[in-house]
Known about the structure:
By secondary structure, this protein is an alpha/beta fold.
Amino acid sequence: MDSSIEIGTEGAGRAVHINVQELLATRLLVQGNSGSGKSHLLRRLLEESAELVQQVVIDPEGDFVTLADTYSHVVVNAGDYNEREIAAMGARIREHRASVVLSLDTLDIEAQMGCAAVFLNALFDAPREHWFPALVVVDEAQMFAPSASGDVSDAVRRASLSAMTNLMCRGRKRGLAGVIATQRLAKLAKNVAAEASNFLMGRTFLDIDMARAADLLGMERRQAEQIRELERGSFLGLGPAISRRPISVKIGATRTATRMGTHGLMPMPDAEPQDMRTMLFAELETQVKPPPPPAPAPVAPDELIRRFAEQAATDHGDDGASDNDADTPEIDMPDIDGAIITVLEDMLADPGNAFHPESFLYQDFSVRCRMQRLARVPLDLTQFRRRFAFAKGGIFEPAQPEWQELIGAAGRLPDDMLAPFTLIARAAMEGSACPDDDALARAYGTSSSGRVRRLLEYMEKQGAIVVRSDFGGRRSIGIPALGVSTEAE
């Protein structure tokens, strides 16, 4: 089988080929400043070799997902999966020889590095019977194999650098051929760049990068100036899979293109300045902030005491008993439960009650029960604490049979954790999204996200929940005792 593909043409119009079989054994390094045509070169290489070899693309910007429109590539959006799922997917890719584009564009830089490390390690650690040949293309390789520490944590940087080093240094025996592209050689770890035997060097302007490129191409320093003068889409190539001497290559056309297109000039809008201002600010200007409600008039202490005394004289006889108590029959049990639910709903309608101390809430509950014409407070402090916690989690009738399993699962937790646990468990039972940190904080009676994280860690250590996060930062929580899990949010 012919393993050569046409990558472009020399200045004289002669076709330039890359031997894919040789490339699998000797790897490729592509370098060029932004706008030099690196992504176009990689796309041409992937399109021309799509029918010859399995391809795995680490795509930090989502540039190569359009390959799936024309070829058999499968796009994996990394933000939709967690670490364990990405690792499992990497193993299956080796087993089934699937060509895949791992799109990382929805993740931040630290998550991209962590995800790429897990994915590359899974490719590398595949069992020997799955060591099929594959091109592993890594765009913006300086992100995943930086020469110096940056804004990410050291643990993530070391993991990503180790995975890239394994790919370039030890991947050949496992069938993995690294094709890495970088904007700047000076930012790429030297032990990663040094393992490539084939080079395609595009336009670059910094002296340090030109000097390293000239060294890799076997050129004298004074010849390095021509690297600065290369046109967009033109590269200097050298290596056993390309040519035994440095040649200039104009990369050929591609069948697919990035969905973002090219950023060329286009006519400016012809709206008049006043019309443009109207479009930008009109809606904002019409949103008039409502005036604050008037402050209540101050009441003197003597007047306040007089009003209380008059109200007490109206409501009670001389013996202190309510005039209506003897005439009003006590409400039966179903009505008492209904009154409790009404009181709890009214209390939860006040946002401030999420943060009041327990003693204040119980006093408020007692007053509201009297307002509901209950002869006595139906719950003691302990009963109220649990009933109010379940109500904050959305369960106003915990005696119902449908909630007994949930209440049993909550039995291993302290009373102050019942509300956030109930909120999570009810969402899991209903198959809805996982409550966010703000909702859990309100249920827990705090405004600290740190306390929410420690709360979840404690409940997980107690075996009450299992927290799972994907690379996109979306969290889902499972309840082992109930066998259910929330949707990711």
